[in-house]
Amino acid sequence: AHASAPGPSGAPVLVASNRGPVSYSVRPDGTLDARRGGGGLVSGLSAVGPEGGALWVCAALGEGDREAVRRGVLEAGVRMLDIDAEVHADAYHGIANSVLWFVHHMLYQTPLEPSFDREFRRQWAAYEQYNRAFAEALAEGAAPGAAVLVQDYHLALVPGLLRELRDDLRIGHFSHTPWAPPDYFRMLPDDIAAQLLHGMLGADRLAFLTRRWADAFTACCDAVVGGTGATRIGVHGLGADAEFLRERAHREDVAGRTAALRAQIGGADRRTIVRVDRTELSKNIVRGLRAYELLLAERPEWRERVVHLAFAYPSRQDLAVYRAYTAEVARVADEVNSRFGTPGWTPVILHVEDDFARSLAAYRLADVALVNPVRDGMNLVAKEVPVVSDEGCALVLSREAGAYEELGEDALAVNPYDVVATADALHAALTMPGPERAERTARLAAAASALPPQRWFLDQLRELRGS
Ligand code: F6P
């Protein structure tokens, strides 16, 4: 378990995030199925240990979660907030995913820039209400002087709201996303931009994945609210959990998936280009497919000799723009296959069901990994692949991913909009001599695992308590 029950006087360490460490679904027989999530925060918090008395405050995200709250079956150390479903939808889909995610990733483009109308204002009120519910739960659950680590753009107002309720707490906030420079950030209505920044600045300490995002935040504060005041700003670049990944990647289920993938790839000498993403607009999957198509078109020597394993796991399907993007990915993959495929060769193998064991199998056998987001807070795939790769894997990496700051030297860097340069980088990656590839992979793996989640978490806690 990642945490034990907080004592009667409250928890000394609290984490707050929209998505919690566990999610529930109701089985046909009426019983509840609990599924534990993975990710940096879950393993990070495990460092506090059972004796740490940590409390994780999260939102109930579906009917299963709500039912678990009603039945009172939540495990110790987790508090799920049963926020009104419409309020949550407005806050999560309407504001967090459709506005704040788009601003931080600079995804709005002419002529699809937003109009901040009355509907937006109505949703913003829900976002405030949702943030207030978190602040109240944290205020209620925290021991005197406790450290509270608030996560992400969903909960940007929580630090300020919590400060008003409990002045004794050490409040930290961590952004897992990029941060946009002022010229873009100021697309938000002036009062909303100021409220958002003031909300975050209610923290003792704010932290970001890279210096670049931290500097952009500071620049926004300078431009919008006249500076960051007394709030400290830090950088903690979350790394891969190498020990866990290597052990996990050598279990039997992964070997089974490897065999299945090899059968799909066909031809023992075929090279593989692997990508693994949520089907997310910022991940730039379509341009990745176009770059691969260009490689096959302009360098026919690769036909029949390479396969692109593209794992694109649908996410946020409640939003029309994500549904459309998911369909576009499938359409373009089909197009490449009809254009170049032969009876014995499928150029793109697209998988859409999320399967961690299969992702690990692909990481192990990849010759090339393609990580080309238009903008990404960090991107852990870029860090996980070199850690579990069997024989070395060349990494084609967008310079707009946070991971580029740490891995840039040994990756093949690309401008994610430049499809021609991406096709060239894929060719360079496929032709990289084996020894060079192995050396680069070893250096990438070392850099990628320098800050494992537990250390990432404990560093933040130490810095926060020192404030
Ligand atoms: O990148 C920031 C982040 O919070 C990730 O941790 C997570 O993958 C995603 O955004 C949120 O996804 P979801 O909306 O599915 O919770």
UniProtKB/TrEMBL annotation:
EC number in record: 2.4.1.15
Source domain of life: Bacteria
Keywords noted in UniProt: Glycosyltransferase, Transferase
Enzyme class per UniProt: transferase
InterPro entries, per database record: Glyco_trans_20
Gene3D superfamilies: Glycogen Phosphorylase B
GO MF assignments: alpha,alpha-trehalose-phosphate synthase (UDP-forming) activity
Family that this chain belongs to: Belongs to the glycosyltransferase 20 family.
Protein's name in the database: Trehalose-6-phosphate synthase
Organism: Streptomyces solicavernae
